[in-house]
Inverse folding.
């Protein structure tokens, strides 16, 4: 038979085991709460607080007391919910209540609190900045539109008087006078294009884009028209222009807007290419896309600015310091038009120096464009 000492030892061992069993769940609960990154407390089914971690005590300066005072501790069984609670000391807390259940039985709720004061401050600052930026954008657009309209009226008069002065009915002009008038007319036309770009940019910002009129576009005829429109300026600058276009399918797009893009690229090529240079326009279908390249032998675009120049009012350093006129709007407008067609426009270096702009346009147009109709009757004009 076991001795009395053995019986006492066994009894003490059983008491220690039972004590560990009683301590283990509470210790596990405390350890679990301490591992949470938030201030946390567990509420029992009767509404009393069973445990809270140190973050909870520090957050509310409880000094050893336990409570759920911030935001209140409503009675009854809880469902999952969150709330943002402003405190008198200026802090803002995010409270989340998560009900605890096991096999359908309600065991209480886990309350967690996070200090979101700094996040709310940043949100308020960001909101104020957005309001200020929106107002500045509105004022900028209003000023641009007003200034553009005010400039357009006198420019129209200047161009009209240039045309009247060249009329033989008002008397013959000397060669020098004719050259002066041509210079006035040329610069007035350039100013009108700048104003048109400003107004178009303002309209794009105000309406979040452009409204395009999609239809069938014969790429070869569109390119020929664009080159012929700019041929006089290129010849005046002493440049040689080459157009090569492979036959291909009809493109679905807005011909007028696409010609604006081509006109801008050809004008830039003529502007930044010295005399005796070359401008080449090539186009060919590649799979489901048309690829159009406008290349020149001019000053080129530094590699680190080949993406940035497509932002409004941005020009490459060699364009700014070289005495070349411009606003930096043309390429931004061109990219917007190409993107509305579902395409891309990029710039790289041309063979032998200069810049090479590549436009890729889907033959079918963007997914939301209307289906193409029959193309216009072909003309008889051919490339020289």
């Amino acid at each position: 038979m076991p001795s009395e000492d053995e019986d006492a030892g066994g009894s003490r061992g059983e008491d220690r085991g039972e004590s560990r069993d009683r301590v283990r769940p509470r210790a596990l609960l405390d350890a679990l709460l301490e591992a949470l990154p938030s201030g946390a407390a567990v509420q029992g089914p009767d509404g009393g607080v069973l445990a809270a971690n140190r973050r909870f005590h520090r957050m509310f300066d409880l000094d050893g007391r336990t409570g759920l005072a911030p935001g209140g501790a409503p009675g009854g069984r809880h469902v999952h919910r969150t709330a943002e609670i402003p405190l008198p000391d200026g802090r803002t807390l995010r409270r989340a209540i998560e009900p605890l259940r096991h096999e359908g039985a309600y065991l209480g709720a886990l309350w967690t609190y996070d200090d979101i004061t700094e996040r709310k401050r940043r949100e308020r600052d960001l909101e104020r900045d957005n309001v200020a930026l929106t107002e500045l954008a509105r004022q900028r657009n209003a000023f641009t539109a007003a200034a553009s309209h005010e400039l357009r009226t006198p420019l129209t008069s200047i161009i009209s008087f240039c045309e009247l002065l060249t009329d033989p009915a008002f008397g013959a002009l000397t060669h020098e006078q004719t050259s002066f008038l041509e210079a006035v007319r040329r610069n007035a036309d350039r100013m009108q294009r700048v104003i048109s770009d400003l107004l178009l940019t303002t309209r794009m910002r105000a309406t979040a884009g452009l409204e395009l009129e999609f239809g069938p576009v014969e790429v070869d005829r569109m390119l020929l028209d664009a080159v012929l429109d700019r041929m006089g300026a290129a010849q005046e600058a002493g440049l040689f222009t080459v157009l090569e276009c492979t036959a291909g399918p009809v493109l679905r797009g807005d011909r007028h807007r696409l010609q604006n893009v081509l006109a801008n690229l050809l004008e830039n090529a003529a502007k930044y290419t010295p005399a005796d240079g070359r401008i080449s326009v090539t186009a060919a279908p590649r799979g489901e896309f048309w690829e159009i390249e406008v290349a020149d032998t001019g000053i080129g675009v530094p590699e680190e600015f080949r993406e940035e120049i497509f932002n409004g009012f941005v020009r490459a350093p060699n364009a700014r310091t070289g005495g070349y006129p411009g606003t930096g709007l043309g390429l931004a407008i061109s990219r917007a038009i190409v993107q509305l067609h579902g395409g891309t426009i990029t710039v790289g270096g041309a063979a032998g120096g200069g810049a090479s702009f590549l436009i890729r346009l889907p033959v079918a147009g963007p997914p939301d464009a209307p289906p193409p109709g029959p193309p216009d009757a072909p003309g008889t004009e051919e490339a020289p």
